[in-house]
Amino acid sequence: MNNFTDSVRALLSAYVDVKQEQFDMAADLDLVYDIDSTEMTELAKKIELAFGIPVSKTQRQDWTTGQSISAFLAQQQR
């Protein structure tokens, strides 16, 4: 777990209207939480604003879980 995990969980759980403690960071965002590509674009904008890290369309294509988003953010901080 990296230092972005709790922040990403909070952002995603609010987006899908699920309690933070019930949000599964390992779950497939599309299959479990029904987040499609349009919604992923909206989420990417929220993440850019929240963390100050630009996100390209190519980069967000790898975002399949909350964990993958958190790992992306940790990698960008290096």
What would your notes on this structure say?
There is one protein chain. The protein has helices spanning 5-16, 37-51, 57-60, 66-76. It has 78 residues and is an all-alpha fold. Helix content is 54%, strand content 0%. The two termini are 16 Å apart. The chain has one domain: Non-ribosomal Peptide Synthetase Peptidyl Carrier Protein, Chain A (Orthogonal Bundle), CATH 1.10.1200. It is built from four helices and no strands. Helix 1 (5-16) crosses helix 4 (66-76).
Query: Which CATH architecture is right?
Result: Orthogonal Bundle
Radius of gyration: 11 Å
CATH C-level class: Mainly Alpha
Task: Please indicate the count of domains.
Answer: 1
User: Which residue ranges are poorly predicted, with pLDDT under 50 across at least 5 consecutive positions?
Assistant: none
Strand segment count: 0
Average the pLDDT over all residues and give the rounded result. 93
Binned, the helix content reads 40-55%
Structural class, from secondary structure content? mainly alpha
CATH topology: Non-ribosomal Peptide Synthetase Peptidyl Carrier Protein, Chain A
The CA-CA distance between the termini, in Å, is: 16 Å
Order of helices and strands: HHHH
Strand composition percent: under 5%
CATH superfamily: ACP-like
Q: What is the oligomer described by this structure? A: single chain
Number of helices: 4
- Main β-sheet: number of strands, strand sense, barrel status? none
Shape: globular
